[in-house]
Amino acid sequence: MKVTTTIIDDEPLAAQLLESYVRKTPYLELTGVYNSAVQAMKFLREKPVQLLLLDIQMPELSGIEFARIVPKDTKIIFTTAFSQYAIEGFKVSAIDYLMKPIAYNDFIKATDKVMKWYESQMKQESYRNDRFMFVKSDYKLIRILLDDILYIEGLKDYVRFYLKSGEKIMSLMSMKKLEEYLPHPEFLRTHRSYIVHMPEAKIIDRLRIVFGDQYIPISENYREQTQNYMDAHTLS
Fold it and tell me: What are phi and psi of 11, to 5 degrees?
């Protein structure tokens, strides 16, 4: 596979260097070079890319600000001459951070992380198509059919699966890892502690999803994506 890549940098020499690096890297495909985030915005809305090589300090809209509005599946590698931006960069989930002047070997190390992430996602996608997964519980591997899940509750280092049969299965696993694995938006995180199998949601009462006598909250952080899902499936 090739990772579609866009460069956004207001320094012409830096942009040219990155362009030369992308063009000679076999697993990258250059889709555009822009000298500002504002200029790139309309193009990326029409045709999102998998990787952004994004300068931080730019006029009008900084790389940090722009990173907050791009689709969450877009991977970001920040490029900058100022090391003090590193912490800010990782706050917006950048996959790596390159200091200018950028050496090709550092560029390869950073972009290789992106390539491996997408390869891993492709493998997981093929597994998800099987519609089941094995989880560890009480020293055993238990098969769970995705279609049998009602919702999942996060409990510190554990998760609890609530199944249609009424069975509950506990497993040592992070909610983040589970959220990345499960097909989206079929499985939607509605709260820090809950992932809901949305086709199984029969009643939504204000900011809660009702499963019998259990009310799953929809928190502020996940309200927009939950509302978007509901709007797409609501006739009025």
Answer: -100, 115
Q: Which of 197, 202, 201 is nearest to 186 (CA)?
A: 197
Other Cβ atoms closer than 10 A to 182: 20
Examine the pLDDT at 86 and tell me if it is beyond 70.
Answer: no
Instruction: Specify the pTM.
Output: 0.58
Q: What is the DSSP string of 162-174?
A: EETTS-EEEEE--
Residue 94: is its pLDDT beyond 90? no
Token pair listed for 43: 């193009």
Query: Quick one: which of 95, 133, 131 has its CA closest to 115?
Result: 95
Alpha-carbon dihedral angle through residues 87, 178, 191, 212, given to the nearest 10 degrees = 180
pLDDT at position 219, please?
A: 94
Q: Which residues fall within 8 angstroms of residue 137, CB to CB, at 6 or more apart?
A: 169, 170, 171
> CB neighbours (10 Å) of residue 96?
19
191-228 burial, b at 16+ Cβ within 10 Å, e below that, comes to bebbbbbbebbeebeebebebeeeebebeeebeebbee
Report the distance separating Cα 8 and Cα 34, nearest Å: 5
Is the pLDDT score of 76 beyond 90? yes
Amino acid sitting at position 38: V
In this structure, are residues 3 and 111 in contact, taking their beta carbons and an 8 Å threshold? yes
